[in-house]
Amino acid sequence: QYFAFMGTILREAMCLGYIAGNPHSLFGRHERPKLKRVKADHLTAEELDDFINCETKNVDEQLKLMFLFSCFTGLRWSDCQRVQWSNIRTIKINGEPQKVIMLTQQKTQDQVVVPLTPSAASLLDRRKKEIMEEFEDKPKYIFSRWSIDKENPDKTALRGLMSVHIRRWGQQVGFPRRIKFHMARHTYATWLIQHGVD
To answer: 3-class secondary structure for 15-57?
Structure first.
């Protein structure tokens, strides 16, 4: 990435007449550094069961639900933060009523319609039960404690705190690899491919 960035600067400098030629172009394609792609990691069904069944200490329960929700919907961290109860709709798919999430993605600004699996729907039911038990005032956001709003304006601090809780959860599970929130999205995508979804 640095190499490509330098090439862009030198090309611009040449176009503006600051330098006579672009030394970056002296490197052939095979000589340029290549970005090493890390294989996307995901949770197996057994590993996910370990996370679900682990009794934890000092790990936020709402964040755990949020991570599992991402495993069952494929929503990014930024979209899980922004998903509201009003995004849950019932529409007809092939003539049958189906609960879905209708959301404009934060990263791409694309509108997506994600069918809710029974597992994702049961997590929403658990969240509703929590709201009732904790006497929360009808929150706008499903995962209100982790949402970006007037009470939680600092995205960086919230992401850092999330990472601490996720790592702590992984340690208590005895998970041998580094756990990140984005692994939930990879888990969803991998399971779709394994079940023949294009």
So the answer is: HCCCCCCCHHHHCCHHHCCCCCCCCCCCCCHHHHHHHHHCCCC
State the Cα–Cα distance between residues 191 and 45, nearest whole angstrom.
Answer: 9
Which pLDDT score is estimated for 150?
A: 55
Which pair of tokens denotes residue 169?
A: 């959860």
The runs of H, that is alpha helices, within the chain are 2-15, 45-53, 61-73, 77-82, 118-133, 155-173, 182-194
- 177-178-182 Cα angle (round to 5): 120
Q: So what's the pLDDT on residue 185?
A: 93
> Residue 99's beta-bridge partner residues?
90
Burial (CB < 10 A; 0-12, 13-18, 19+), residue 9, is: exposed
In angstroms, how far apart are the furthest CA atoms of the chain?
A: 71
95 in helix, strand or coil? coil
State the sign of the Cα–Cα–Cα–Cα dihedral 83, 87, 91, 97.
Answer: positive
What is the average pLDDT across 45-66? 95
Greatest mean pLDDT among 16-25, 46-55, 105-114 lies in 46-55
